[in-house]
Structures are given as C-alpha cells and as structure tokens.
C-alpha cells in the first residue's frame, strides 16, 4: 500500500473543497510527512463533528468520529481537539463549515 504524506493529502483536500464550494480552511498545520489529520465539521446549525483518520483491520484508511456521539456542540468539539493537541502536537486540523457536512477527504 502506498502511503501519501499528510501535507499532500491535506493540500489536495483543500483544493478539492475550494473547487466544490465547500468552506474549508487549515486551522493548524502539522508534520507534513506523517502528522495525524483531524477534521472539524460545523454544520452551521449548532452541530459539530470531529473526525480522525485511522486504519481499519484491512489496512485501509477510514474517517472515524472521535467524540462520544456523532454530533456535539462547539465547546465539546474544541475541548476534544485541545486534548488531542496535548497528545500530538504535530497534527493537522482542517475546519469545515458546510450545511451538508461534506468531508472533502472522503471524495479524494
């Protein structure tokens, strides 16, 4: 399995989001070679979702919800991201504001 560097994957997702009119910004730059990637989706109606990229049992990358429930409020999302940054200071955070809750990484 070929592994794409985190920095390249994040850049591709940002370009894809821009081309498809998804409001997507890099809120924290991580290690360009192997930094973890967290996606914070704000649906603009008070719901927030946090996703992290991880490997499944078959060795494929998947996006998993990393909060206690799929949707949380803004404060719970920020608290979880702060806790993740204490454990991994080299992680990327990609912020998305989209009423449809689209994750540009899913479409790459």
- By oligomeric state, this entry counts as single chain
Summed up, the domain count is 1
Q: What summary fits the major beta sheet?
A: 5 strands, mixed
**Low-confidence residue ranges:** none
CATH homologous superfamily title: Protein of unknown function (DUF1491)
- CATH first level: Alpha Beta
Determine the number of helices (DSSP H or I, runs of at least 4 residues). 2
List how many beta strands DSSP finds: 5
CATH topology: hypothetical protein tt1805
Shape call: globular
What is Rg? 13 Å
* Residues in helices, as a percent range: 25-40%
Helix/strand order: HEEEEHE
Instruction: Report the CATH architecture.
Output: 3-Layer(aba) Sandwich
> In what range is the share of β-strand residues?
25-35%
**Strand order, largest beta sheet:** 1-5-2-3-4
Mean pLDDT: 94
Distance between the termini: 16 Å
Structural class: alpha+beta
Written account of the structure:
The protein has 108 residues and is α+β, with helices and mostly antiparallel strands. It has a single domain, classed as hypothetical protein tt1805 (3-Layer(aba) Sandwich). 26% of the residues lie in helices and 29% in strands. The chain contains 2 helices and 5 strands, in the order H-E-E-E-E-H-E. It has helices at residues 6-19, 74-87; strands spanning 23-28, 37-42, 48-55, 61-65, 92-97. It has a 5-stranded mixed beta sheet with strand order 1-5-2-3-4, sandwiched between helices.
């Amino acid at each position: 399995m070929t592994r794409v560097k985190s920095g390249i994957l994040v850049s591709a997702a940002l370009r894809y989001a821009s081309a498809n009119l998804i409001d997507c910004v890099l809120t924290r730059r991580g290690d360009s070679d192997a930094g973890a990637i967290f996606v914070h989706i704000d649906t603009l109606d008070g719901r927030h979702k946090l996703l992290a990229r991880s490997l499944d049992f078959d060795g494929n990358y998947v996006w998993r919800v990393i909060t206690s429930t799929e949707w949380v409020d803004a404060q719970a999302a920020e608290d979880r991201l702060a806790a993740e940054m204490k454990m991994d200071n080299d992680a990327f955070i990609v912020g998305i504001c989209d009423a449809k809750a689209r994750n540009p990484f899913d479409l790459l």
